[in-house]
């Protein structure tokens, strides 16, 4: 039976003593309505003690501890001071609103804790009448304290991000995929729109970005002349033959004439497509820099885009590092996996890692093998990136070389290097770099240490000699004592 109820407020911890409450008929409507009546509810519980927080920082620290089911030292001292020691005659049971927090208090302090329906009902009533039950303490406005603590708690949760810049990578790769779809759709619309006037240009120029720029430059094909050959060649990366081909096609084109108003609309839309394509390039460069900072080994192994998609699909780099290699292998192919399990068919061999160049280079028989091997290396790279303090891409380069050796093994049969040997080589190279840095920074102190060691050398020799002498004396004394004992025994006999 619950004797006491712990209630956490924004201004401190409150401990209530349970006087009387109905247990058998607790689910009756009449009993539950007593919580809404303050005079009746005041007979059920009584405020025993209250421990205010020192300041806003202390309140935030305790709120974080409660949410993470950690017993704060201030709460521990408060409970030890106000709760009686449990015994066989006097049983103490503490009511706590959250099960995890109740388990933490029981493990830390040994008190029996409960969070059943009756406790939840009492906590509901305390929360309802908290301002009046705690009014006599004069701890300030409870609503203002709750508002301030709520803001600081939410701000701290938003700022706390163990995954460094994972969220930026997730948003960037999602926007990049969306831009790829949108740019392709809009470019096809420009092609269809402008091809009514100049249909031959579609077959000559395949690139959407170049097509939109050429449509903006050429405008009306009847006005195209040899003076524009240089400008067209610049847009085509210096390809003069293609520029001449466009000029010849414009002179013999079968397209219809176009009005100035229609041409203005096509030109405006082509401007939008060009700006989106240029922004897509900038976003791709931004994603590469972020991946080199957050996951350098994963990006060196499998590429920036595929690595970013793995992080995005897992939710964060930490989640990806926790996945086993078998999960990373089929990450992104969940529908095919569940379909295969449902129909008892063949499960998929790869998911997002299929877009890696390694699987494309492998033969048809070895695609499953190389995907399993690559997934294993991806898990190693993601764990190194997640838990390594100093970001480096050397592990990823070594893992990439291992995948290359495995591909070569499938083709030629040459034995690849072992994983332990490759990782040890990288560790040795990093250790050599650290030693070189320490030698450069600690060059002067090293001379002082050598001089001090030279002074301390004779002192150490003297200490050793003294120890040896004392040991010899102790051995002699022991031998003498033994000989005396033996002589006494012989004389007695």
UniProtKB/TrEMBL annotation:
InterPro entries: Nop56/Nop58, NOP58/56_N, Nop_C, Nop_dom, Nop_dom_sf, NOSIC. Pfam families: Nop, NOP5NT. The keyword Nucleus applies. Gene3D superfamilies: 1.10.287.4070, Nop domain. Residues 294-412 form the Nop domain. Keywords: Nucleus, Ribosome biogenesis. GO terms for cellular component: box C/D methylation guide snoRNP complex; small-subunit processome. SMART domains: NOSIC. The keyword Nucleus applies. It is found in: Nucleus, Nucleolus. Residues 430-440 have a biased composition (Acidic residues). Residues 430-493 are annotated as: Disordered. Residues 441-474 have a biased composition (Basic and acidic residues). Residues 475-493 have a biased composition (Basic residues). One of its GO terms (biological process) is ribosome biogenesis. Required for 60S ribosomal subunit synthesis. Belongs to the NOP5/NOP56 family. This is Nucleolar protein 56. It comes from Umbelopsis ramanniana AG.
């Amino acid at each position: 039976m619950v004797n006491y109820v712990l209630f956490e407020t924004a201004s401190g911890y409150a401990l209530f003593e349970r006087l009387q409450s109905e247990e058998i008929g607790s689910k009756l409507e009449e009993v539950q309505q007593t919580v809404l009546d303050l005079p009746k509810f005041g007979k059920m519980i009584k405020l025993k003690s209250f421990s205010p927080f020192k300041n806003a920082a202390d309140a935030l620290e305790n709120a974080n501890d409660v949410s993470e089911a950690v017993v704060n030292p201030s709460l521990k001292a408060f409970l030890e001071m106000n709760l009686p020691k449990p015994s066989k005659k006097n049983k103490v049971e503490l009511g706590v609103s959250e099960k995890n927090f109740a388990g933490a208090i029981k493990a830390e302090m040994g008190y029996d804790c409960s969070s059943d329906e009756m406790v939840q009902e009492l906590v509901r009533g305390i929360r309802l009448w908290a301002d009046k039950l705690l009014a006599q303490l004069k701890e300030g406005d409870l609503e203002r304290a709750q508002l301030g603590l709520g803001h600081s708690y939410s701000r701290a949760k938003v700022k706390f991000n163990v995954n460094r810049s994972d969220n930026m990578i997730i948003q960037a790769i999602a926007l990049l995929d969306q831009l790829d779809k949108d740019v392709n759709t809009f470019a096809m619309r420009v092609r269809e729109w402008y091809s009514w006037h100049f249909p031959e240009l579609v077959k000559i120029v395949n690139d959407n970005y170049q097509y939109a720029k050429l449509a903006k430059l050429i405008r009306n094909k009847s006005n195209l002349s040899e003076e524009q050959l240089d400008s067209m060649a610049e847009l085509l990366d210096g390809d003069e033959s293609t520029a001449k081909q466009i000029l010849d096609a414009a002179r013999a084109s079968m397209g219809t004439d176009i009005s100035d108003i229609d041409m203005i609309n096509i030109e405006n839309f082509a401007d939008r497509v060009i700006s989106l394509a240029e922004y897509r390039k900038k976003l791709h460069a931004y994603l590469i820099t972020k991946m080199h900072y957050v996951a350098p080994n994963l990006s060196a192994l499998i590429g920036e885009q595929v690595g970013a998609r793995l992080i995005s699909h897992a939710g964060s780099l930490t989640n990806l590092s926790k996945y086993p290699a078998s999960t990373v292998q089929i990450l992104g192919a969940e529908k095919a996996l569940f379909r295969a399990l449902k129909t008892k068919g063949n499960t998929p061999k790869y998911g997002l890692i299929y877009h890696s160049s390694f699987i494309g280079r492998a033969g048809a028989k070895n695609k499953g093998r190389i995907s399993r091997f690559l997934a294993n290396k991806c898990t190693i790279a993601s764990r190194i990136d997640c838990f390594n303090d100093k970001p480096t891409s050397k592990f990823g380069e070594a893992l990439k070389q291992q995948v290359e050796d495995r591909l070569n093994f499938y083709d030629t049969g040459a034995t690849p290097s072992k994983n332990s040997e490759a990782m040890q080589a990288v560790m040795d190279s990093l250790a050599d770099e650290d030693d070189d840095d320490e030698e450069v920074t600690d060059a002067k102190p090293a001379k002082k240490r050598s001089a001090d060691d030279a002074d301390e050398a004779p002192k150490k020799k003297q200490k050793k000699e003294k120890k040896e002498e004392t040991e010899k004396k102790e051995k002699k004394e022991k031998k003498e004592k033994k000989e005396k004992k033996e002589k006494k025994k012989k004389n007695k006999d």
